[in-house]
Design a protein that fits this description.
Layout lengths: L16 E7 L3 H12 L4 E5 L22 H14 L3 E4 L2 E7 L8 E6 L4 E9 L3 E3 L15 E2 L2 H4 L8 E4 L4 H10 L5 E4 L7 H9 L3 E3 L3 E6 L5 E6 L4 E3 L2 E4 L3 E3 L11 E4 L2 E4 L12 E3 L10 H40 L1
Parallel strand pairs: 1-2, 1-6, 2-3, 6-19, 8-15, 9-10, 9-15, 10-11, 16-18
Antiparallel strand pairs: 4-5, 5-6, 7-16, 12-13, 13-14, 17-18
């Protein structure tokens, strides 16, 4: 479900070796880059221009920025990174891999773009985000981010009191239903071939949630193209204005295979494994945002990027000190001879 953002001016790709390359120009990547740039690190953000929340009209639940369009938050973020000397380059990464270390033994990585350009970096922060894997129901994808929603905290207030349908994708949809029931009294749960245990059915009945076991065949629109309901396999149309889907989520890992990062199965999808501040099992590589925390909203992703950026700067500071000490040691025999 990748949607492109409006085009913007791309910076030139830096020459030589930079302190850090950030792969991903969303909230996590830009905030990580901001921390690094403010620490006087040379940093380049590679942005494919297809953030997960591009279809949404606004970001919600983000203090002081609630209701701001996602594109505006990213525009401001790019400006702020550039304000401190960071670069934001529009491009798609097709490979990232370890390279020969520097003469003093410091790590090096090579990142290559689809157009053939490449850049060398001392450290890498991956913040590529994720992709929502929607059920293959005709008409569903065209309403994604508007009348077809996922997060009750991102879109819930805006769809309150509407007739809402939960299109089940698995066990996670049960909890989804309870959250959306908080927002409307008119909620229908479409099991769509998934299991619904008797205890959950009893709870749904107690909360006034209607359950339909007949599979959903398609999403139907009204004459103006707005979502009007869902058509079942038996031909019946159930009127709904909103469909909520707990879609499985997949980290965007394409082009990053050469780094050898661990991808793990999580309750709601697949993402990169990470430790404190976004560290990974691969020295010199960090991850932040939805690529590792599938359920993080914009604020949490930005915070994770900031933590990773600070940790990268700390690692670079130690590497710089080690290199300086090694340089003195190598020069000392000559100094003694003089």
């Amino acid at each position: 479900m990748a949607v492109a953002t409006p085009p913007y001016a791309s910076d030139a790709l830096a020459e030589g070796t930079v302190d850090a390359v950030v792969i991903g120009g969303g909230a996590a990547g830009l905030n990580g880059a901001l921390i690094l740039a403010r620490s006087r690190r040379s940093v380049v953000v590679i942005d494919s221009g297809s953030p997960r929340n591009a279809p949404a009209e606004a970001v919600h639940g983000l203090l002081a920025l609630d209701g701001t369009p996602p594109s505006e938050i990213l525009r401001r973020g790019r400006e702020q990174v550039r304000q401190y000397g960071g670069r934001v380059v529009f491009g798609e990464v097709v490979s990232a891999e370890s390279a020969a270390p520097s003469a003093d033994g410091d790590l090096r990585f090579t990142v290559t773009l689809a157009d053939g350009r490449s850049i060398t970096a001392r450290r890498i922060l991956i913040a590529t985000g994720l992709t929502d894997v929607l059920p293959e129901v005709p008409g569903l994808a065209e309403h994604w981010g508007h009348s077809v929603v996922q997060c009750p905290y991102c879109h819930g207030w805006e769809v309150r009191d509407e007739p809402i349908g939960i299109l089940a994708t698995g066990p996670a949809s049960i909890g989804h239903a309870y959250l959306f029931r908080q927002l409307t009294e008119d909620l229908t749960y479409f099991t769509h071939g998934t299991d619904l245990d008797e205890d959950s059915r009893a709870r749904f009945t107690a909360r006034g949630i209607r359950v339909i076991d007949t599979p959903v065949a398609e999403v139907v629109n009204d004459e103006d193209g707005a979502l009007a309901g869902v058509r079942l396999a038996d031909g019946q149309v159930v009127t709904r204005r909103i469909v909520a889907v707990a879609a499985p989520m997949q980290a965007r890992t394409q082009g990053l295979e050469g780094l050898g990062l661990l991808v793990q199965d999580l309750p709601k999808g697949r993402g990169f494994a990470s430790g404190t501040a976004g560290t990974t099992e691969v020295p010199g590589v960090w991850v932040a945002g939805n690529v590792t925390d599938l359920v993080a909203q914009v604020g949490a992703s930005a915070a994770a990027g900031a933590l990773a950026g600070a940790d990268i700067n700390s690692a670079l500071a130690i590497a710089d000190a080690d290199a300086a000490l090694q340089g003195i040691a190598e020069e000392s025999p000559e100094a003694a001879a003089g």
